[in-house]
Amino acid sequence: MDKQLEEQRRHITQRMENAAIATLNHHRHDWMNDLQVLYGYIRLGKADKLIQVVERIKERTTEESKISKLGISSLVFYLQSYRTSGSPLELHIEVEEGLRLDTLISPEDGEILTGAIADTVRAYQFSSRSSWGEIRKLMILFHQDQGDIIVRFEGEKVSPETEAWSNLFTIKQGIKVKVKAEQTTEEHALFQFRVTCGI
Questions:
Q1: Cα torsion angle, 110, 113, 118, 119, sign
Q2: How far is Cα 73 from Cα 31, in angstroms, rounded to an integer?
Q3: Which pLDDT value is given to residue 131?
């Protein structure tokens, strides 16, 4: 029994290490691409294009910095490593300035929220088939509203009859914890999670 548990632990650790390495390699690859573009514009003397590239890099690093400060390691890891998954769904993340979830909710609620976000991304990904080569986009926004944490999902509307999507919403609505799914009237919003603050 102990040998089996040890083998499972080793397997999980190896999977996490492989995912971390893939994420680091992906970020390194992005940086190399950016440097090559910058170098090309410098050689061509295109200062206006240089400014655009630097602004894009600045926006991306600011977004990644805000994600890393969310404070729930499983959520940070999921969001930072998602790009390496090879999914045809592109995630865009917006985090309210200074938002630190680990100071607002318990570790248990943080894990439940992470699972709910991952389930939502997966359900959205499989809710409708995009045309060959088309990349769908999903925006996830994190902010506070009257003492609650809001995680809002924005993207192309999904048919409520889609099995994965309707099951997800029903299950998350029924959770007996501080994470609640709710409809929203915001334009382009699919729905949102509301998390009651309190550790």
A1: positive
A2: 23
A3: 61
